[in-house]
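Appendix B. Worked example

We walk through a single record from start to finish. Start with the input: the chain for Glycosyl transferase, Paenibacillus jilunlii, length 353.
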Amino acid sequence: MNNYISNKTVSVHIVTYNSADDIADCLTAVYAQEYPVEQIVVVDNASADGCAGKVRAFSDTLTAQAPSAQQQEAGAEGSLKSELHVPSLTLLGNHTNTGFAPAHNQAIAATNTDYVLVLNPDLTLEPDYISRLIARMEANPRIGSATGKLLLKADHSRVDSTGLRMNRARRAFDRGAGEPAAQWPESGIVFGVSGAAAMYSRRMIEDISVNGEFFDADFFAYKEDVDVAWRAELFGWLAYYDAEAVGYHERGWKTSGRDSKPMFIRRISYINRYKMIYKNEPARTLFSTLLYSLPYEAAAHGYMLLKEPKLIKAWGSFWAQRRNLKKKRKYIQAKIKSLRTGKTSQGNKAVER
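Next comes the structure step. The output line below is what the pipeline stores for this chain.
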Protein backbone atom coordinates (compact mmCIF):
# COMPACT_ATOMS: atom_id res chain seq x y z
CA MET A 1 0.00 0.00 0.00
CA ASN A 2 1.25 3.47 -0.86
CA ASN A 3 2.65 5.05 2.33
CA TYR A 4 1.05 8.40 1.56
CA ILE A 5 -2.36 6.82 1.16
CA SER A 6 -1.96 4.68 4.30
CA ASN A 7 -1.32 7.85 6.31
CA LYS A 8 -4.86 8.97 5.56
CA THR A 9 -7.17 8.11 8.44
CA VAL A 10 -10.61 6.57 8.06
CA SER A 11 -13.47 5.90 10.43
CA VAL A 12 -16.51 3.69 9.86
CA HIS A 13 -19.92 4.94 11.00
CA ILE A 14 -22.85 2.57 11.49
CA VAL A 15 -26.34 3.55 12.64
CA THR A 16 -28.36 0.69 14.11
CA TYR A 17 -32.04 0.28 14.85
CA ASN A 18 -33.08 -3.24 15.80
CA SER A 19 -30.11 -4.55 13.84
CA ALA A 20 -29.07 -7.36 16.20
CA ASP A 21 -29.27 -10.02 13.48
CA ASP A 22 -26.82 -8.21 11.20
CA ILE A 23 -24.39 -6.14 13.27
CA ALA A 24 -21.86 -8.86 14.16
CA ASP A 25 -21.29 -9.83 10.51
CA CYS A 26 -21.01 -6.17 9.54
CA LEU A 27 -18.43 -5.41 12.24
CA THR A 28 -16.47 -8.58 11.45
CA ALA A 29 -16.11 -7.42 7.85
CA VAL A 30 -14.96 -3.97 8.98
CA TYR A 31 -12.29 -5.46 11.26
CA ALA A 32 -11.11 -7.62 8.36
CA GLN A 33 -10.34 -4.62 6.14
CA GLU A 34 -6.84 -4.45 4.67
CA TYR A 35 -6.75 -0.70 5.22
CA PRO A 36 -6.15 0.32 8.88
CA VAL A 37 -9.43 1.68 10.24
CA GLU A 38 -8.81 4.17 13.03
CA GLN A 39 -12.23 4.19 14.64
CA ILE A 40 -15.61 2.52 14.37
CA VAL A 41 -18.59 4.48 15.67
CA VAL A 42 -21.90 2.69 16.18
CA VAL A 43 -24.87 4.92 16.95
CA ASP A 44 -27.74 2.85 18.30
CA ASN A 45 -31.15 4.47 17.94
CA ALA A 46 -32.90 2.91 20.94
CA SER A 47 -32.97 -0.63 19.56
CA ALA A 48 -35.33 -2.99 21.36
CA ASP A 49 -33.73 -6.23 20.14
CA GLY A 50 -30.52 -6.18 22.15
CA CYS A 51 -28.42 -4.71 19.34
CA ALA A 52 -26.41 -2.44 21.65
CA GLY A 53 -25.59 -5.43 23.84
CA LYS A 54 -24.31 -7.34 20.82
CA VAL A 55 -22.02 -4.43 19.91
CA ARG A 56 -20.62 -4.36 23.47
CA ALA A 57 -20.09 -8.12 23.45
CA PHE A 58 -18.34 -7.92 20.09
CA SER A 59 -16.07 -5.17 21.39
CA ASP A 60 -15.25 -7.09 24.57
CA THR A 61 -14.37 -10.22 22.60
CA LEU A 62 -12.03 -8.35 20.27
CA THR A 63 -10.37 -6.54 23.15
CA ALA A 64 -9.67 -9.86 24.84
CA GLN A 65 -8.31 -11.40 21.63
CA ALA A 66 -6.13 -8.46 20.63
CA PRO A 67 -3.01 -9.26 22.78
CA SER A 68 -2.72 -12.84 21.54
CA ALA A 69 -3.31 -11.73 17.94
CA GLN A 70 -0.50 -9.19 18.28
CA GLN A 71 1.85 -11.84 19.64
CA GLN A 72 1.02 -14.12 16.68
CA GLU A 73 1.65 -11.24 14.28
CA ALA A 74 5.01 -10.53 15.89
CA GLY A 75 6.00 -14.18 15.65
CA ALA A 76 4.95 -14.42 12.03
CA GLU A 77 7.00 -11.36 11.10
CA GLY A 78 9.99 -12.51 13.16
CA SER A 79 10.31 -9.14 14.83
CA LEU A 80 10.82 -8.20 18.43
CA LYS A 81 8.07 -5.63 18.30
CA SER A 82 5.03 -5.69 16.07
CA GLU A 83 1.59 -4.30 16.60
CA LEU A 84 -1.57 -5.52 14.94
CA HIS A 85 -3.75 -2.49 14.29
CA VAL A 86 -7.08 -2.79 16.08
CA PRO A 87 -9.55 0.06 15.56
CA SER A 88 -11.29 1.55 18.55
CA LEU A 89 -15.02 0.88 18.77
CA THR A 90 -17.29 3.56 20.20
CA LEU A 91 -20.95 2.89 20.97
CA LEU A 92 -23.22 5.93 21.22
CA GLY A 93 -26.67 5.08 22.54
CA ASN A 94 -29.65 7.32 21.88
CA HIS A 95 -32.75 7.21 24.08
CA THR A 96 -35.04 7.58 21.07
CA ASN A 97 -34.87 6.77 17.37
CA THR A 98 -33.44 10.05 16.11
CA GLY A 99 -33.33 8.82 12.50
CA PHE A 100 -30.59 7.87 10.04
CA ALA A 101 -29.56 11.41 9.11
CA PRO A 102 -29.24 12.93 12.61
CA ALA A 103 -27.50 9.82 13.95
CA HIS A 104 -24.89 9.88 11.20
CA ASN A 105 -24.31 13.59 11.85
CA GLN A 106 -23.73 12.58 15.46
CA ALA A 107 -21.10 10.04 14.39
CA ILE A 108 -19.41 12.52 12.04
CA ALA A 109 -19.13 15.03 14.90
CA ALA A 110 -17.51 12.35 17.08
CA THR A 111 -14.62 11.76 14.64
CA ASN A 112 -12.00 13.81 12.81
CA THR A 113 -10.63 11.30 10.30
CA ASP A 114 -9.69 12.20 6.72
CA TYR A 115 -12.32 9.82 5.39
CA VAL A 116 -15.67 8.58 6.67
CA LEU A 117 -17.33 5.35 5.54
CA VAL A 118 -21.08 5.50 6.14
CA LEU A 119 -22.16 1.88 6.40
CA ASN A 120 -25.49 0.13 6.86
CA PRO A 121 -25.52 -2.63 9.50
CA ASP A 122 -26.99 -5.13 7.02
CA LEU A 123 -24.02 -4.79 4.69
CA THR A 124 -20.72 -6.69 4.60
CA LEU A 125 -17.59 -5.72 2.68
CA GLU A 126 -14.78 -7.48 0.86
CA PRO A 127 -11.44 -6.86 2.65
CA ASP A 128 -10.15 -4.41 0.02
CA TYR A 129 -13.28 -2.23 -0.12
CA ILE A 130 -11.90 0.68 1.90
CA SER A 131 -8.39 0.59 0.43
CA ARG A 132 -9.69 0.70 -3.15
CA LEU A 133 -11.98 3.67 -2.53
CA ILE A 134 -9.40 5.73 -0.66
CA ALA A 135 -6.78 5.07 -3.35
CA ARG A 136 -9.20 6.29 -6.00
CA MET A 137 -10.17 9.40 -4.04
CA GLU A 138 -6.54 10.28 -3.27
CA ALA A 139 -5.74 10.05 -6.97
CA ASN A 140 -8.27 12.79 -7.75
CA PRO A 141 -8.92 15.41 -5.04
CA ARG A 142 -12.12 16.49 -6.79
CA ILE A 143 -13.72 13.15 -5.88
CA GLY A 144 -15.51 13.71 -2.58
CA SER A 145 -17.53 10.49 -2.44
CA ALA A 146 -17.12 6.95 -3.69
CA THR A 147 -18.85 3.59 -3.65
CA GLY A 148 -18.14 0.08 -4.78
CA LYS A 149 -20.28 -2.51 -6.51
CA LEU A 150 -22.98 -3.40 -3.99
CA LEU A 151 -24.55 -6.79 -4.61
CA LEU A 152 -27.58 -8.44 -3.06
CA LYS A 153 -26.68 -10.75 -0.18
CA ALA A 154 -29.36 -13.18 -1.30
CA ASP A 155 -27.99 -13.31 -4.85
CA HIS A 156 -24.42 -12.19 -5.51
CA SER A 157 -25.06 -12.22 -9.25
CA ARG A 158 -27.50 -9.30 -8.91
CA VAL A 159 -26.78 -5.63 -8.30
CA ASP A 160 -28.07 -3.71 -5.32
CA SER A 161 -26.43 -0.40 -6.29
CA THR A 162 -23.54 0.91 -8.36
CA GLY A 163 -24.18 4.49 -7.32
CA LEU A 164 -27.06 6.90 -7.78
CA ARG A 165 -28.58 8.53 -10.82
CA MET A 166 -31.16 11.31 -10.98
CA ASN A 167 -33.38 12.14 -13.94
CA ARG A 168 -34.68 15.54 -15.05
CA ALA A 169 -37.82 15.12 -12.95
CA ARG A 170 -35.51 14.91 -9.91
CA ARG A 171 -36.33 11.27 -9.27
CA ALA A 172 -33.37 9.29 -7.99
CA PHE A 173 -32.59 5.61 -8.49
CA ASP A 174 -29.91 3.09 -7.59
CA ARG A 175 -27.96 2.36 -10.77
CA GLY A 176 -28.27 -1.21 -11.92
CA ALA A 177 -30.61 -2.31 -9.14
CA GLY A 178 -31.71 -5.90 -9.78
CA GLU A 179 -29.62 -6.24 -12.93
CA PRO A 180 -26.89 -8.86 -13.53
CA ALA A 181 -23.65 -7.79 -11.83
CA ALA A 182 -21.69 -8.71 -14.95
CA GLN A 183 -23.29 -5.79 -16.78
CA TRP A 184 -21.55 -3.25 -14.51
CA PRO A 185 -17.78 -3.87 -14.94
CA GLU A 186 -16.71 -0.32 -15.73
CA SER A 187 -15.67 2.12 -13.00
CA GLY A 188 -16.26 5.82 -13.45
CA ILE A 189 -17.87 9.08 -12.39
CA VAL A 190 -21.50 8.90 -11.19
CA PHE A 191 -24.08 11.38 -9.96
CA GLY A 192 -23.82 10.16 -6.37
CA VAL A 193 -23.36 7.18 -4.06
CA SER A 194 -25.80 5.14 -2.02
CA GLY A 195 -25.65 5.79 1.72
CA ALA A 196 -25.53 2.03 2.29
CA ALA A 197 -21.74 1.94 1.91
CA ALA A 198 -20.59 5.46 1.05
CA MET A 199 -17.07 6.80 1.45
CA TYR A 200 -16.92 10.57 1.98
CA SER A 201 -13.86 12.76 2.31
CA ARG A 202 -13.74 15.06 5.33
CA ARG A 203 -12.90 17.92 2.99
CA MET A 204 -16.19 17.46 1.17
CA ILE A 205 -18.12 16.93 4.38
CA GLU A 206 -16.90 20.26 5.71
CA ASP A 207 -17.37 22.05 2.40
CA ILE A 208 -21.00 21.08 1.72
CA SER A 209 -22.36 20.98 5.27
CA VAL A 210 -25.14 23.48 5.97
CA ASN A 211 -25.31 24.92 9.48
CA GLY A 212 -23.00 22.15 10.64
CA GLU A 213 -25.16 19.38 9.16
CA PHE A 214 -23.80 17.06 6.48
CA PHE A 215 -26.98 15.01 6.23
CA ASP A 216 -30.10 17.15 6.51
CA ALA A 217 -31.57 16.32 9.92
CA ASP A 218 -35.03 17.38 8.71
CA PHE A 219 -35.02 14.32 6.44
CA PHE A 220 -34.90 11.83 9.38
CA ALA A 221 -34.21 9.03 6.86
CA TYR A 222 -34.55 8.19 3.14
CA LYS A 223 -33.17 10.25 0.24
CA GLU A 224 -30.67 11.97 2.54
CA ASP A 225 -27.90 10.40 0.43
CA VAL A 226 -29.48 11.78 -2.75
CA ASP A 227 -29.71 15.22 -1.16
CA VAL A 228 -25.99 15.07 -0.28
CA ALA A 229 -25.12 13.86 -3.78
CA TRP A 230 -27.01 16.71 -5.43
CA ARG A 231 -25.58 19.35 -3.08
CA ALA A 232 -22.06 18.00 -3.64
CA GLU A 233 -22.49 18.14 -7.42
CA LEU A 234 -23.81 21.71 -7.21
CA PHE A 235 -20.75 22.66 -5.16
CA GLY A 236 -18.36 21.18 -7.72
CA TRP A 237 -17.53 17.77 -6.24
CA LEU A 238 -17.37 14.45 -8.10
CA ALA A 239 -18.63 11.00 -7.08
CA TYR A 240 -17.01 7.75 -8.20
CA TYR A 241 -18.05 4.13 -8.70
CA ASP A 242 -15.28 1.52 -8.32
CA ALA A 243 -16.41 -1.79 -9.81
CA GLU A 244 -13.59 -3.70 -8.07
CA ALA A 245 -14.66 -2.71 -4.54
CA VAL A 246 -17.45 -5.09 -3.56
CA GLY A 247 -20.05 -5.20 -0.78
CA TYR A 248 -23.12 -7.32 -0.06
CA HIS A 249 -26.39 -5.73 1.03
CA GLU A 250 -29.46 -7.29 2.64
CA ARG A 251 -31.43 -4.26 1.40
CA GLY A 252 -34.53 -4.90 3.56
CA TRP A 253 -37.80 -3.19 2.71
CA LYS A 254 -36.75 -1.88 -0.73
CA THR A 255 -36.90 -5.39 -2.19
CA SER A 256 -40.45 -5.94 -0.96
CA GLY A 257 -43.67 -4.61 -2.42
CA ARG A 258 -44.83 -1.06 -1.81
CA ASP A 259 -47.80 -2.21 0.27
CA SER A 260 -45.47 -3.87 2.77
CA LYS A 261 -43.84 -0.55 3.67
CA PRO A 262 -45.25 1.26 6.73
CA MET A 263 -47.09 4.49 5.94
CA PHE A 264 -44.53 6.33 8.10
CA ILE A 265 -41.74 5.26 5.72
CA ARG A 266 -43.77 6.02 2.60
CA ARG A 267 -44.53 9.52 3.85
CA ILE A 268 -40.89 10.30 4.65
CA SER A 269 -39.61 8.95 1.34
CA TYR A 270 -42.29 10.87 -0.57
CA ILE A 271 -41.89 14.27 1.08
CA ASN A 272 -38.10 14.24 1.27
CA ARG A 273 -37.95 14.48 -2.51
CA TYR A 274 -39.81 17.79 -2.39
CA LYS A 275 -37.68 19.08 0.48
CA MET A 276 -34.63 18.26 -1.61
CA ILE A 277 -35.97 20.03 -4.69
CA TYR A 278 -37.00 23.07 -2.66
CA LYS A 279 -33.49 23.46 -1.24
CA ASN A 280 -31.30 22.49 -4.17
CA GLU A 281 -33.00 23.37 -7.45
CA PRO A 282 -31.34 26.51 -8.86
CA ALA A 283 -33.73 29.27 -9.95
CA ARG A 284 -32.33 29.15 -13.49
CA THR A 285 -33.49 25.53 -13.94
CA LEU A 286 -36.65 25.57 -11.82
CA PHE A 287 -39.10 26.23 -14.67
CA SER A 288 -37.67 23.57 -16.98
CA THR A 289 -37.66 21.04 -14.14
CA LEU A 290 -41.29 21.77 -13.29
CA LEU A 291 -42.26 21.50 -16.95
CA TYR A 292 -40.40 18.24 -17.46
CA SER A 293 -41.75 16.64 -14.26
CA LEU A 294 -45.37 17.69 -14.78
CA PRO A 295 -46.54 14.42 -16.41
CA TYR A 296 -44.97 12.37 -13.62
CA GLU A 297 -46.37 14.62 -10.89
CA ALA A 298 -49.88 14.45 -12.35
CA ALA A 299 -49.79 10.65 -12.60
CA ALA A 300 -48.16 10.14 -9.19
CA HIS A 301 -50.54 12.43 -7.35
CA GLY A 302 -53.55 11.02 -9.16
CA TYR A 303 -52.51 7.56 -7.97
CA MET A 304 -51.85 8.88 -4.47
CA LEU A 305 -55.30 10.47 -4.15
CA LEU A 306 -56.98 7.26 -5.33
CA LYS A 307 -54.85 4.61 -3.65
CA GLU A 308 -52.86 6.29 -0.85
CA PRO A 309 -54.76 9.40 0.31
CA LYS A 310 -53.08 9.25 3.73
CA LEU A 311 -49.79 10.07 2.04
CA ILE A 312 -50.91 13.69 1.65
CA LYS A 313 -50.37 14.22 5.38
CA ALA A 314 -46.63 14.16 4.68
CA TRP A 315 -46.93 17.79 3.58
CA GLY A 316 -47.51 18.68 7.23
CA SER A 317 -43.81 18.10 7.94
CA PHE A 318 -42.82 20.18 4.92
CA TRP A 319 -44.79 23.21 6.06
CA ALA A 320 -43.69 22.74 9.67
CA GLN A 321 -40.05 22.80 8.54
CA ARG A 322 -40.43 25.37 5.77
CA ARG A 323 -38.64 28.13 7.68
CA ASN A 324 -35.58 25.91 8.17
CA LEU A 325 -35.76 24.69 4.59
CA LYS A 326 -35.92 28.27 3.36
CA LYS A 327 -32.79 29.21 5.32
CA LYS A 328 -30.98 26.19 3.90
CA ARG A 329 -32.05 27.05 0.37
CA LYS A 330 -30.79 30.59 0.83
CA TYR A 331 -27.37 29.34 1.92
CA ILE A 332 -27.10 26.68 -0.82
CA GLN A 333 -28.19 28.98 -3.64
CA ALA A 334 -25.89 31.77 -2.44
CA LYS A 335 -22.93 29.39 -2.49
CA ILE A 336 -23.86 28.11 -5.96
CA LYS A 337 -24.00 31.71 -7.19
CA SER A 338 -20.66 32.47 -5.59
CA LEU A 339 -19.05 29.43 -7.22
CA ARG A 340 -20.49 30.33 -10.62
CA THR A 341 -19.32 33.93 -10.24
CA GLY A 342 -15.84 32.72 -9.33
CA LYS A 343 -15.67 30.49 -12.39
CA THR A 344 -16.85 33.36 -14.59
CA SER A 345 -14.22 35.67 -13.14
CA GLN A 346 -11.48 33.09 -13.72
CA GLY A 347 -12.71 32.61 -17.29
CA ASN A 348 -12.67 36.35 -17.94
CA LYS A 349 -9.11 36.65 -16.61
CA ALA A 350 -8.00 33.80 -18.85
CA VAL A 351 -9.55 35.53 -21.88
CA GLU A 352 -7.85 38.82 -20.96
CA ARG A 353 -4.47 37.07 -20.76
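Two observations about the output. The chain has a mean pLDDT of 90. The longest strand covers residues 238-249.
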